[in-house]
Specification:
Enzyme class: hydrolase
CATH class: Alpha Beta
Number of helices: 15
Radius of gyration: 21 Å
GO biological process, one term: defense response
Distance between the termini: 12 Å
CATH superfamily: Cytosolic phospholipase A2 catalytic domain
CATH architecture: 3-Layer(aba) Sandwich
GO molecular function: monoacylglycerol lipase activity; phospholipase activity
Oligomer: single chain
Protein name: Patatin
Number of domains: 1
Keywords: Hydrolase, Lipid degradation, Lipid metabolism, Plant defense
C-alpha cells in the first residue's frame, strides 16, 4: 500500500491515503478507541488478519501519536512481518503502562518532593518509558516500518524541527534512527519528560547527533507534514494548471485529535496578566505554556488543511475527529489514575456517537455538519473507501 506509483491497472488515478494522530499524553486513548473501531470495520470487509498499516500510504504521529504510529507500523519479527500491535490492543497498552510512565503522587510528602523537583528537572524521569520502548522496539529502525511514517521532533541544540520520514531513512542512513529513539524523542514534552540525545551512523563511519524534545513543539497535529510530500508528488505528475484541483481529490485524510478543553475556558487574560514565569509553567496542576502551544499548533494545521480541501470542494476527503469538550483531569496529559484513564476510554466511545464536525474557516470553531451522520458512520464509510482502494491496487 505504501507504493507511490500514480496509477493502478484499472486506469483509475491512485488515491493517496493518510492517517494522522495528534499528541496529547494519556489522551492517546481517545484516538486509540477510534482506530480500534476503524480496524474492526476493515476486518469486517477484508478479513480478520488485516491491519491499519495495510491501508495507509502514510501514517503520521506526534508525541503520543508517534508512539501509536510505531505500534501500528513496526513489524513483529515473531508474526511474519505483521505489526506489533493490532489497533484493538492500543488502549490496553495505555491502561497498563501509563500509570508507570506517569506515576501519581500517593501522599503529601511525595507531592511536596515532586513539586520541588519541578524546579530542578522534569516532572518524570522517563526511565520506565525508555526501558519500555527499548524493550518493545529493540533495534528496529525507521526504514523497516510496514508503511511510510512521519514523526516530528525538535532539536533544541540546532533550534529547528527534525521530521523523521521513512522515505528519507531508506535513502540516508544518518536519518535511519531506531524507532525507540524516535518515540522517546517525540514524547519528551518540556517540563514533563527529559530531552533525548542519540547518534546515528552510516556505513562510512559518518555520524549525526540529535538533541531532541517533543514533536509538539514543531507540529502537535502532523497532518500537514504528512500530506505535503503527496501534494509535491501530485504536482510533479500534473505540471499543467489543473494540478490545484487534483490535490484534494487524490488525497484521502483521516486526522485524529486527542481532545481539548476549549469550552472549559480554563485560562483567560485577566488571570494570565498576573502570572509570572512559575505560573506559566505550573498552574493548578497544568502547564499553561505547553497547553497553549500544543493546541495552537494543532488548530493552525487543521485550519490550513481544511482550507486546502474546502477551497477545492473536496472537504469530504478530509475527516478530522476531535473533541473540544474535555474538562478537568480528562484534559490532562499525565493524570494516569485508573479513574481518569477509564474516563478517556468512555470519551472515545462517546465521540463515535457524536456528529461529524468541520472547522468553520471564518470563526475557527468546529461545527456539526448536518446530513453527514455520526463519526462512527463516517469511519465506516472511510473504511469502505480504504478497502476499495486496496482492492483496486491488488489487481495490479
Amino acid at each position: 500500500m505504501a507504493s507511490t506509483k500514480a496509477n493502478n491497472c484499472s486506469g483509475k488515478t491512485k488515491t493517496f491515503t493518510v492517517l494522522s494522530i495528534d499528541g496529547g499524553g494519556i489522551r492517546g486513548i481517545i484516538p486509540g478507541t477510534l482506530l480500534a473501531f476503524l480496524e474492526s470495520k476493515l476486518q469486517e470487509l477484508d478479513g480478520p488478519n488485516v491491519r491499519i498499516a495495510d491501508y495507509f500510504d502514510i501514517i503520521a504521529g506526534t508525541s503520543t501519536g508517534g508512539l501509536v504510529t510505531a505500534m501500528l507500523t513496526a513489524p513483529n519479527p515473531k508474526d511474519n512481518g505483521r505489526p506489533l500491535f493490532a489497533a484493538k490492543d492500543i488502549n490496553d497498552f495505555y491502561l497498563q503502562h501509563t500509570p508507570k510512565i506517569f506515576p501519581q503522587n500517593r501522599d503529601f510528602m511525595t507531592a511536596i518532593t515532586s513539586w520541588l523537583d519541578a524546579f530542578s528537572g522534569p516532572k518524570y524521569d522517563g526511565k520506565y518509558l525508555h526501558s519500555l520502548l527499548n524493550s518493545l522496539l529493540g533495534d528496529l529502525t525507521l526504514k523497516q516500518t510496514l508503511t511510510n511514517v512521519v514523526i516530528p521532533a525538535f532539536d533544541i541544540k540546532l533550534l529547528q524541527p527534525v521530521i523523521f520520514y521513512t522515505h528519507d531513512a531508506k535513502e540516508n542512513a544518518l536519518r535511519n534512527a531506531r524507532l525507540a529513539d524516535i518515540c522517546i524523542s517525540t514524547s519528551a514534552a518540556p517540563t514533563y519528560l527529559p530531552p533525548h540525545k542519540f547518534t546515528t551512523r552510516d556505513g562510512n563511519g559518518k555520524t549525526r547527533d540529535f538533541d531532541l524534545i517533543d514533536g509538539a513543539v514543531a507540529a502537535n497535529n502532523p497532518t500537514m507534514l504528512a500530506i505535503n510530500p503527496l501534494i509535491r508528488e501530485i504536482a510533479k505528475e500534473n505540471s499543467e494548471s489543473g494540478v490545484i484541483e487534483q490535490e484534494g481529490k487524490r488525497i484521502l485524510v483521516l486526522s485524529l485529535g486527542t481532545g481539548a478543553p476549549k469550552l472549559e475556558e480554563k485560562y483567560n487574560a485577566a488571570k494570565a496578566s498576573e502570572w509570572g514565569l512559575l505560573n506559566w509553567v505550573f498552574n493548578n496542576g497544568s502547564t499553561p505554556i505547553v497547553d497553549i502551544f500544543s493546541d495552537a499548533s494543532a488548530d493552525v494545521v487543521d485550519l490550513l488543511v481544511s482550507n486546502i480541501f474546502q477551497a477545492r470542494n473536496h472537504q469530504k476527503n478530509y475527516l478530522r475527529i476531535q473533541d473540544d469538550n474535555l474538562v478537568g483531569n480528562e484534559s490532562s496529559v499525565d493524570i494516569a489514575t485508573k479513574e481518569n484513564l477509564q474516563r478517556l476510554v468512555e470519551i472515545g466511545k462517546k465521540l463515535l456517537e457524536k456528529p461529524v464536525s468541520r472547522v468553520n474557516l471564518e470563526t475557527g470553531r468546529c461545527e456539526a455538519i448536518v446530513g453527514e451522520g455520526t463519526n462512527a458512520e463516517a469511519l465506516t464509510k472511510f473504511a469502505e473507501l480504504l478497502s476499495e482502494e486496496r482492492k483496486l491496487r491488488s489487481t495490479k
